[in-house]
Each structure stands twice: as structure tokens, then as C-alpha cells.
Specification:
ion transport, mainly alpha, single chain, hydrogen ion transport, transport, membrane
Length: about 55
């Protein structure tokens, strides 16, 4: 079985790293979150929690 030279291992690592980064960037920038309307913002209630230790 022939051995791979260190330069080939490095180029393989670079190719896989670039592929991973590009795939993650495409997934991140293709997602568009839904914007919360101003009407719903007033409906959000905050609860005060009283901790009893």
C-alpha cells in the first residue's frame, strides 16, 4: 500500500476544512428568522421570581 506524502495529507486537510467552512456559511446565511411584530412585543410579560433559600 503506497504511503501518502505529508504534503498530500495537508492538502487533503485544507480541502476538507474549506468544504466544511463553506457548507456552514451557506447554512448560516440561508436561514432567515421571522421578525417579531411590534404588537407581540407588548404582549410579552415578565415574571418576577422570588427565590426562597
Amino acid at each position: 500500500m503506497p504511503q501518502m506524502s505529508p504534503l498530500m495529507w495537508f492538502s487533503l486537510f485544507i480541502i476538507f476544512s474549506i468544504t466544511l467552512i463553506m457548507f456552514n456559511q451557506m447554512n448560516f446565511f440561508s436561514y432567515k428568522p421571522n421578525k417579531i411584530k411590534s404588537i407581540k412585543k407588548g404582549m410579552i410579560k415578565s415574571k418576577n421570581l422570588n427565590w426562597k433559600w
